[in-house]
Amino acid sequence: SSAISLSGPTSVQIHSGNFFTGATPDISVQVGDPHGLSGSLTVLGQTISGDFTFEKTPTETDLTVSNLSLSLNAGATQVLHISGANGEFALLSGSSGGSGGLAGTASLTIDGGAAISGLAIGFPTTVNLAFNTSSNPVTTINGTEVDLPAGSYFRVSGHTSLTLSSPFPAASLTGDFVFESKSSGDVAVGVANLGFSLDNGST
Fold this sequence. Notes:
- The protein is an all-beta fold.
- It is built from no helices and 15 strands.
- It has strands at residues 4-7, 10-15, 26-31, 39-43, 46-56, 60-74, 77-92, 101-113, 119-121, 125-132, 138-141, 144-148, 153-164, 170-181, 187-199.
- The strands form two sheets. Strands 1, 2, 3, 4, 5, 6, 7, 8, 9, 10, 13, 14 and 15 form a 13-stranded antiparallel β-sheet that branches. A two-stranded antiparallel ribbon has the order 11-12.
- The chain starts with a strand and ends with a strand.
- The relative contact order is 0.11.
């Protein structure tokens, strides 16, 4: 069976000033209906539901995702659940002497995950992601301003809370976190609104 499948109401639009000039037309494929019907993308047995629009232009292939939800399972055990995700992604061809790659931005809410003994993660947790694997800066994706530096580049930001319990000392940590790659190869870490408490068991 195929490792990747896509299902749902589908529409295809082809845009060209003149089909007979030999110019490459813009092609748009929408899976999912704006009036409430969603499509689904199955990758290696995991199903992603949402509204998907693929658009092919002469320089890139864009993927727009909205209302995305994903349940990642290992057998009968849920590992991760994501809802309300939105994103813009582009598969880029090489230009101006640079290499092609993948770039995009996304916002998602993690509202469930696997039970880990001694560790509780505060749900829901909102995560924002931006990345660019191509060697050229990316200023827009499908008309949306993203201003991504030349890659390899990534930035992950969000707010979370963690609580430790037995067998660990009881402790809690909350804060806003940012992880961002730098041209030097280092990863910068930023923390704001940090809160921490520790219960050493004394009375």
